[in-house]
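Interim report to the steering committee. The following record documents the input for Leucine rich immune protein (Coil-less) (291 residues).
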Amino acid sequence: MSRNMVVFTVGCTIGRKLECNEHRANECEISNFTIVESMDLSEYEFPDHPHLAFGTYPHSDDSTYVVAIDKELADRLQSTEKLEMQNVSLQTMVLWTNLRSLDASHNYFFELIVEPGQNYQLRELNLSYNRFQSIDFVQALPALRTLDLRHNYLESLSFSLFDMATELWKLNLANNRIQTISTDGSLHLPRLSTLLLHDNLLSVLDASEWRFSMLQELNVARNRLRYLSMCEVNHSFPHLQTLYMDENRWECGHLNATIRQLHQLGVKAMAYYDTEDQEHCSKAIDEICCY
């Protein structure tokens, strides 16, 4: 079946054969269908299509629920390389090796199941707006290039989980509850270009063991940081271009010295959020509040 030219039949089921809705050009969309845990799907025939979408997101759809994808169903979806399941109440899913792109944002997702020793090909993973408290599955995904974990329930994180993710170039951990980030030994992510940590609860950012030689954008806005080690910036982020650092608890003397050094390095110290309302700020350096 061609990836770019697929003729679809309107409707969801004909007997037990699931059909693709016709209004998406190059995707096989299945709507008006429910999958829950322990559901017998043996009589259903799923479309053999490389790009599968459950639900009608971003349009309203109260008819489609994919609460769980177990191993039996994962085995039957081996031909699917790109999967979209936004806003379908997904909670748990078994990953299959051929999947290269997964967008499971806006769900109740808390468990992505991987098997040791498998050669997973997943490159793009969007898990934003879910309920993940742990992301140990990352250790099994060495091909990852982008990982979006915005708006989850992460509280602490070991960056050592990313030790094998040497292809990773964008990591979004914003809007969690992260208080601590640790590393077990030196961590080298040679392609990482963007690291987003804003809207967390970090009071310390220890980057002494990081080697992010291609990092260009770092966002630590709206945390609880008091200081930033310029030694670590020089050592860990030698190609840093933009640093968002507003809405923290910077100590004014240290912030002043840090921003001077950032300017000397050609790094833009910027405010990520609107700076018009500065009534709460007794002093600011380059529009960054300090205390």
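DSSP finds three helices and 24 strands in the chain. The committee is asked to note this result when reviewing the revised timeline.
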